């Protein structure tokens, strides 16, 4: 007798679980639907903001890298010009000695 009662009990639990999983989402109130939609939109906005921030950070990194390269090139040009200038003056200085 107990086994048949347990089967009935399990059946009612199964029905309750199925109604919660299938029927409740179909019967959501319009207010809850609006709330869900609003939550989804907020999540999408947050994701978009995060993507924009990441893109801005990447652009800043690129700009820093380009600026550093430009500064390094400038130093090389100055050093090169200085060495050319000095190499032109060395023979003149040596000839006076």
UniProtKB/TrEMBL annotation:
State the protein's name: Uncharacterized protein
Compositional bias of type Acidic residues: which residue ranges? 40-63
Q: What are the boundaries of the region Disordered?
A: 31-74
Per UniProt, the ranges with Basic and acidic residues bias are 64-74
Native source species: Plakobranchus ocellatus
């Amino acid at each position: 007798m107990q086994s048949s009662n347990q089967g009935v009990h399990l059946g009612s639990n199964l029905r309750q679980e199925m109604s919660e999983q299938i029927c409740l989402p179909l019967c959501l109130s319009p207010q809850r639907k609006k709330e869900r939609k609003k939550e989804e939109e907020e999540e999408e906005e947050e994701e978009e903001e995060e993507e924009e921030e990441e893109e801005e950070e990447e652009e800043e990194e690129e700009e820093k890298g380009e600026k550093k390269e430009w500064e390094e090139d400038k130093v090389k040009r100055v050093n090169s010009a200085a060495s050319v200038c000095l190499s032109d003056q060395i023979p003149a200085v040596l000839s006076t000695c």
